[in-house]
Design goal:
about 0% helix
Amino acid sequence: MQLFGKALHISKTGNLVVRGTLAPRRGTQVFADKKPIGTVQEVFGPIRSPYVSVKLRRGVKEESLPGKQLYIGEGKT
């Protein structure tokens, strides 16, 4: 796993917005505390520190994510 950014907030559409240190590919798995929480949906903003929209898995507690360091894993889900 590779460190990829910090969770900022939940968007109006229910996706997690992350301030990234890199731009992962769409569909890449995202992890918090070594547990999969969702997949990358969209990358937008500046190239050096992009924002990333993450579609959360069912059962993930949204309120616990803002402020956490997130990681990306190998391959797609």
